[in-house]
Task: inverse folding
């Protein structure tokens, strides 16, 4: 039997539990090659099933799972890692026990994937504030996973069928971006992107477009010198290493060509440069992927959505896309081993 895709429950008081159940009941998880296993909490999932009027029945499970939950006519394997008082939890108000549970789900899934017992992990959204209040020193999934996997540099990729964007910098004030950029970081982002697309998307020579920072790619230095000073040298070094990278491309035109299929990935200098076009095309079905880990990790491209948690209104589209992309990546090739000082250049 193939190793399972491990789906972490996320914040028990957010939309994670209900979109998992909604995806299950929709039939969108029926035709996966890999079995699906939820790292989470049985009572929280039963509470989510009540939102959809679905009857549940619980039985023991074998293997990695501890329980099998029948929801309507479908079943879900669960590894129970917490026993929260689901009936007392208020949507949108996670306590420290919820925070500890979120971390436990992530760590268990990561460890199983590192051990080869899980094919990939897919994460539902967490509350950064809740895990911090519970004692976690990490601001979110990415940092926790990088530390646990022993890597120094990872790349955030947001992906859909038509467009995949990889970010050199992530959550920074726009004014801080120019100072945060370096030729080394740009080069390493290109290398990690190239290696991940070769391993996990079965591309022999991924076509990578690297964006400029400034309008019109700096217009020969009139609008800034980062293109000539930082970005072009990084691209040149990547090309010397056998990577099919081009640029610096002007961001105002490049996405037209990327969306029509001329490139496999776009390396972007800052958050909104990549996420605005990505969400224009893939608002409902975008997937957050962490490249550079020795395991496959995908995630929904949205947060805990406390404003609608507990209503059953949250869309399951991003979760379904994340599960399917995780399976695709897991089947396409084996991850490279973790390194503490840099990544395999592929």
Result:
């Amino acid at each position: 039997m193939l190793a399972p895709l491990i789906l972490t429950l996320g914040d028990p008081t957010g939309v994670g539990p209900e979109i998992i159940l909604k995806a299950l009941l929709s039939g969108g998880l029926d035709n996966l090659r890999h079995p699906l296993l939820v790292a989470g909490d049985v009572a929280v999932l039963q509470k989510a099933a009540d939102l959809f009027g679905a009857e549940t029945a619980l039985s023991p499970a074998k293997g990695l799972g501890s329980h099998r939950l029948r929801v309507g006519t479908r079943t879900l394997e669960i590894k129970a890692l917490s026993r929260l008082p689901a009936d007392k939890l208020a949507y949108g108000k996670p306590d420290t026990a919820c925070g500890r549970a979120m971390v436990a789900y992530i760590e268990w899934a990561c460890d199983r994937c590192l051990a080869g017992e899980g094919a990939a992990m897919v994460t539902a959204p967490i509350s950064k504030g809740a895990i911090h209040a519970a004692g976690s020193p990490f601001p979110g999934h990415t940092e926790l996973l990088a530390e646990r996997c022993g890597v120094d540099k990872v790349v955030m990729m947001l992906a859909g069928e038509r467009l995949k964007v990889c970010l050199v910098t992530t959550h920074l004030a726009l004014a801080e971006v120019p100072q945060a950029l370096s030729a080394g970081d740009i080069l390493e982002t290109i290398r990690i992107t190239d290696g991940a697309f070769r391993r996990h998307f079965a591309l022999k020579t991924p076509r990578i477009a690297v964006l400029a920072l400034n309008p019109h790619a700096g217009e020969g230095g009139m609008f800034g010198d980062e293109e000539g000073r930082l970005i072009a040298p990084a691209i040149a070094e990547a090309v010397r290493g056998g990577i099919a990278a081009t640029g610096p491309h002007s961001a105002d035109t490049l996405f037209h060509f990327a969306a029509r299929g001329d490139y496999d990935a776009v390396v972007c200098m800052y958050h909104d440069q990549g996420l605005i076009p990505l969400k224009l095309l893939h608002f409902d079905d975008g997937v957050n992927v962490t490249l550079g880990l020795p395991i496959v990790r995908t995630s929904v491209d949205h947060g805990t959505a406390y404003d609608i948690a507990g209503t059953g209104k949250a869309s399951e589209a991003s979760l379904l896309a994340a599960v399917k992309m995780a399976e695709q990546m897991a089947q396409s090739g084996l991850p490279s081993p973790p390194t503490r000082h840099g990544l395999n250049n592929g």
The first helix runs from residue 16 to 26. The chain has two domains: 1-154+292-341, 155-283. The chain is about 35% helix and 20% strand.
